[in-house]
Amino acid sequence: MIEVNGLTKRYGDVLAVNDLTFTVRPGHVTGFLGPNGAGKSTTLRMVLGLNRPTAGTSTVDGRPFAHRQAGLHHVGALLDAGDVHPGHSAAAHLSALARGNGLPRRRVREVLEEVGLAGVARRRVGGFSLGMRQRLGIATALLGDPPVLLFDEPVNGLDPEGVRWVRGLFRGLAAEGRTVLVSSHLMSEMENTADRLVVIGRGELIADETVAEFAARGTRADVAVRTPDPASLAAVLTRAGASVRADGGDSLMVTGLTAARIGELAFEHRILLRELAPRTASLEEAFMELTADRADYLAGDRR
Ligand SMILES: Nc1ncnc2c1ncn2[C@@H]1O[C@H](COP(=O)(O)OP(=O)(O)OP(=O)(O)O)[C@@H](O)[C@H]1O
């Protein structure tokens, strides 16, 4: 369990993280989402004791992480996949960490196999692709078999097969009862991976809830309708209190009435329907809506 309480970080004039409070529970994959510059990395670094908070506290299983001696036994983290000496091999890098943390040598072989790097274990990391470096970073996080795992943008550089693999890995780790926190600036990456979300914008908490609850926030009550007689149907629905947008063809977009009520009204007025489809906003749309006014970097005139 990770508990963040009133966590705040100021860099000069920049309030990178502002009074953030949330809990990350074991047994779930929790997505940590926010636009670029929202403060995700800064928060993760404070949880790991790498950055000192301006105010507030964070604890891992009840104690500040910095006070724990067990290191990799207790928390595994992928922060920056480039943070490995390019002249070292993957095996040498992991072996040094295993030695430093009192871990058995066999863990090196096990995690290299788990992330699919066993075949390149002796190659210099300098020649690794970004995806291979991410896999090595994930191997590092897994090395101590820790109950709490933090991954900062782990999907960067992975190919589609790698993305699928990493999703399965995270879900498997959570199913074993571990606490898994995964940051991303893309909702699409979290949609099929996380079951809970912590969403931040400009350093502030926007949402801390299940993916289903988050999706419900962005749900629109639109119904798409197709009919050979859009003008008559639009008139009937407008009289019934709906707001109707026509596209000039045979489609209408209706807000303010349920699909069932639209079907009844069309039946009563003998208007043929060719399609009647309630539409819900995607998670991506919910995320964009909620973070639009808290994104630091927006193209065009949306700021
Ligand atoms: N060492 C630092 N000195 C000054 N400002 C910093 C420092 N680190 C981060 N910031 C600022 O704090 C804010 C949050 O940055 P952070 O890297 O935590 O965001 P992020 O959500 O991880 O973004 P991204 O998705 O782009 O990595 C940004 O405005 C950033 O410029």
UniProtKB/TrEMBL annotation:
Coiled coil (UniProt feature): none
A Pfam match: ABC_tran
Record has RNA-binding as a keyword: no
Gene3D superfamilies on file: P-loop containing nucleotide triphosphate hydrolases
The keyword Plastid belongs to this UniProt entry's keyword annotation: no
Protein family (similarity comment): Belongs to the ABC transporter superfamily.
Protein's name in the database: ABC transporter ATP-binding protein
Organism: Streptomyces milbemycinicus
Source species taxonomy: Bacteria, Bacillati, Actinomycetota, Actinomycetes, Kitasatosporales
